[in-house]
Design brief:
Blueprint lengths: L1 E5 L2 E7 L5 H7 L5 E4 L4 H11 L4 E4 L5 H9 L8 E2 L1 H7 L2 E4 L3 H13 L6 E4 L3 H4 L1 H4 L8 E7 L3 H10 L3 E9 L5 H11 L2 E6 L2 H13 L4 H16 L4 H23 L1 H6 L3 H30 L2 H10 L4 H13 L2 H11 L4 H18 L1
Parallel strand pairs: 3-4, 3-6, 4-5, 6-7, 7-8, 9-10
Antiparallel strand pairs: 1-2, 2-10, 8-9
Helix pairs in contact: 1-9, 2-8, 10-14, 11-12, 12-17
Length: about 375
């Protein structure tokens, strides 16, 4: 493991240097890995493992025809590498639970009865295990219980793999029945495309993940954007101007600077006016949102958020209700404006102009 200093705290991180792809293949030799669920994470992790040379099959309910057909389109063959969930679990030695958290609760009885001693159950979220009193997902004592949680959506996991970049993931072992749980876990982390693997626990992963999704990563971000957009529109700014100053500059410029070198570097490389204003107002926004984050974390820790997820997402009409909620976002003026703005972004022509300009400059210098 590599010992890395994170802001003054040293942590052990596993990289591909310490745990190579060749080592991962050796550890998982003879294993059959069943990807259960072909919705969000399933396709990315399954395809990455298949491309890396691991023995992978997919378990997907035919009731969800869209996902079944997507699996077939991606080259999984019914009866050979694509099965219903029960048959896939029966054939596997490692079962990757990659259906939604609510669905994990529903299918767990079928999964559990088909596990054999020495098998491994793998999760990419600590939800079902940590809140086992709600989900009833309680693995037998004779199987390994593993977690590899990529720090990105399924789309990012696959896209980063294809680009050769990989993605960071956290990992944890909740139960080591075989004495091989840790090496199996790390091998799977490398197999699905992780570049770096950070140690965690099931509990820490789910507490931080649920807080992050509801907070900065999605909920808070969308809410803050809507608030600023509404204020600008109410004060006479056009839709395009309100969107550009709220979303476009953030996603196309500033966040990329933060990504490259950090927030301090981004501040240092903005105008003095923007820099001063950001520093003056940062504390006010922190003071305003800190109580909300404390309430959010408390709800996550006490299980209130998971109760909400299980009760809502488990309803038969949930997909219809979800479609309405997402449509309300997509059909709002703000995000209809966003669609128009995105269509106007300079694309390949900018590269062509750059090449042409360089050519002109070169000719002038001769």
């Amino acid at each position: 493991m590599a010992r890395i200093d994170f802001g003054g705290t040293k942590e052990d991180v596993v990289t591909r240097k310490e745990f190579s792809m060749a080592k991962a293949r050796k550890v998982l030799k003879g294993e059959t890995i069943a990807v259960i669920g072909y919705g969000v994470q399933g396709p990315a992790q399954g395809l990455n493992m298949r491309d890396n040379g691991f023995n992978v099959i997919v378990g997907q309910s035919k009731a969800f025809r869209k996902d079944w057909n997507r699996a077939k389109k991606d080259g999984w063959v019914p009866g050979e590498t694509l099965f219903d969930i029960e048959e896939a679990v029966r054939r596997a030695t490692i079962v990757q639970m990659l259906v939604s958290d609510a669905a994990q609760k529903a299918i767990w009885p079928v999964v559990k009865k088909n596990l054999n001693p020495g098998d491994a159950v793998y999760f990419s979220h600590g939800f079902s295990i940590v809140y086992g009193d709600q989900t009833k997902v309680i693995p037998p004592e004779d199987v390994d219980v593993l977690l590899v949680a990529p720090k990105g959506s399924g789309t990012s996991v696959r896209r980063n793999f294809l680009s050769g970049a990989g993605i960071n993931s956290s990992y944890a072992v909740e139960q080591d029945a075989t004495g091989r749980a840790t090496e199996r876990c790390l091998a799977l982390g490398i197999a699905v495309g992780s570049g770096y693997l950070f140690p965690t626990t099931f509990q820490n992963e789910v507490f931080s993940d649920l807080t992050g999704e509801r907070g900065v990563l999605m909920g808070a971000l969308a809410g803050i954007m809507e608030a600023q957009y509404d204020v600008l529109r109410a004060n006479g700014h056009s839709p395009s101007e309100a969107f550009n100053e709220t979303v476009e500059e953030l996603t196309q410029s500033l966040i990329r600077l933060v990504d490259e070198n950090g927030m301090d570097w981004m501040y240092a490389n903005c105008s003095a006016t923007a820099q001063r204003g950001a520093l003056d107002w940062k504390g006010k926004f922190k003071k305003a949102t800190l109580p909300v984050f404390k309430e959010l974390y408390k709800r996550v820790k006490t299980g209130l958020e998971t109760k909400r997820v299980l009760s809502s997402c488990g309803r038969k009409n949930y997909q219809a209700q979800l479609a309405k909620e997402l449509d309300a976002i997509g059909s709002s003026e703000m995000w209809r404006t966003g669609k128009a703005v995105r269509a106007l972004r300079p694309k390949e022509k900018a590269k062509e102009i750059t090449k042409e300009t360089k050519g002109i400059a070169g000719r002038k210098s001769n």
